[in-house]
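Open question from group meeting: does this chain pack into something compact, or does most of it stay loose? Before anyone orders reagents, we agreed to write out a predicted structure and look at it together. Recording both the input and the output here so the notebook holds the full record.
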Amino acid sequence: MTKVQTTEEFFEDFKREVENAKERIYIQTMNFEIGPRLLPLAQVLVKKAKEGVDVRITMDWVYKRYVGDDLRLLPLFNREKRKYKERVHTENERVIQELKDAGAHIEVVNKAYFLPFLVPIIGRNHKKIYIVDTKAAWLGGINFFDGSFYAVDFMVKFQDDSIIKKLVQEYFKIERHKHREDVSVVLNSDMNLLLDSGKRGSSIIYQEAIDMVRRAKETIQFVSQLPPDGKLLEAIVGAVEKGIKVELYTSKETSRQFNDFPYNTLYLHFQNRAKQYPGLRLNHLLDRLHAKLLIVDNKEALFGSHNLVHLGVMLGTEEIAIKTKNVSLLTELSEFITKELRSS
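Structure tokens returned:
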């Protein structure tokens, strides 16, 4: 059984499941930052760890460079902003230490050396997985920090024992950094789990997106906070030339990735390419979008942590996604586009 949940639905459901957890609570996230929204949930995690529940949180080292969803690539000279950043990080480390003291297992992966420290977007673990007992697991795009729960995004909840068992196995491989190659794991007859190992220039997920677009006969729906690029963009252009209906959804126009250099490089490239094709147009939401989803012909879908851009592939980003042909899940994913994106 699966269920597509919006950010608010996921937050409330995950909180309920955590409060009732008996055996384990596993969280895999890139960003980890406790603010007013997540502090009560973090306190529940502390309580559960003290009760003997196996609480594990795997996060990427880059969380230390973020404040909210703002990753600073250059030194911060504004004194007030710098003080605010220090306060946020101090409080965050306090909560992390409280979790450790309670018995939670905290694993920070991809600790930075010289080049990643200077360019922190290189070699990140961008995966998101949440697991509670043997009852529930979620996979999608939501990070464990307050800002994630104010963006347009979704998680898919799984309640099938066999799928949860396989996600637990992959969680431990992520925690122990054992994914050395890109892999595809069969979850059931109509669902595959895809994992990118973070090898620069290689992505089973991005390649699957290209292949799906090339198979399209009627419709393509692409959802990401970043515009398509590389071979995927060229595949989409080819679909437009064939008369295939293409819908592209992205974040609000005032977003940093569309206006500030160097973040806007992909956007400018896309806009330049789109000038030649009237059918190639980005639909900007009125809110911040963080969802990642590709649906082709309403017959197959790809969703997860991957922004479906080649830039992430070249940066060596570890990603997770699910490719599915499950009819009920496809219906729910299509409804997410209709209710959450087309109406925005």
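Observations to bring back to the group:
The mean pLDDT is 94.
The first strand starts at residue 2 and ends at 6.
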